[in-house]
What does this fold into?
Amino acid sequence: MSLLEGRSAGSRPRRGLILAVLLGCGALGSVQGAAPPSQGEPKQRYQRSTVEVDVPDVTLVDQGGKHVRLRALLAAGHPVALNFFFASCRSICPVMTATFASMRTRLGKAQDLTVVSVTIDPEQDTPDVLRTYAESFSAGAGWTFLTGDPDAVQAVQSAFGADAGGKFNHRPLFYLRSPGASSWVKLEGLAGAADLASEVRLLSAPRSAVR
It folds into this structure.
C-alpha cells in the first residue's frame, strides 16, 4: 500500500505534488545529511531510537481555532503519533502528512490513536490555513493540527529535539508514544505507513504480548 492510498478522490491535485516529491526525493537523503551506503550495503530507510521528552506546558491553537493545552492533549489514555511540518512546504511535509493519513487508514477505526501535527511556521500557518491543509488530506476527527505563539512552538520543537535552525532545514521525524509513557519512539527518515502502523500496534499491545 502506498503513501497515497486511503486518500479521497478530491485530493488529486496534491497527489501529483506528492508523487513528484517522492520521485525526486533524493532531497530526503540530503535533508538527513546521511552519506550514501557503500556498494552492497543495504540502504537503511530510517533510524529508530527512543528519546525522553519533557513536554512543555504550553497552550497552542488547533485548526478549528480552539486553544489546546499540549500536555493534556498528549496525556490521553491511548497511543500518540506526532510530527512537525509547515503548510507551504513542498518537499518532505506533504510526504510525511500523507504517510500519517495512510497509517491511520491501515490502523482503521479500531485503533484509538491521537495524531498531532505541529507547524514550525506559526506566523504563516493560521488556524484557517491549517484547516484547509487538514481537509486536503482528509484528516478528520482524531488528528489535531496545531499553531500558536512562535515562542511556544519553538519550545515544543526544542523539547523534542526537532529544531534544525529554520523551517527549510527541518528533518523527516515521526514520534510515537504508548499511553502514559515518558519516552517516545523516534523515527527519522523514510519510514512508511506500514512501519508506523506496526510501531503503533506494538505500543498498543499488552506488555505480556510483547515479551
About this structure: Strands lie at 46-52, 59-62, 67-69, 80-85, 114-119, 143-147, 173-177, 183-189. The first strand starts at residue 46 and ends at 52.
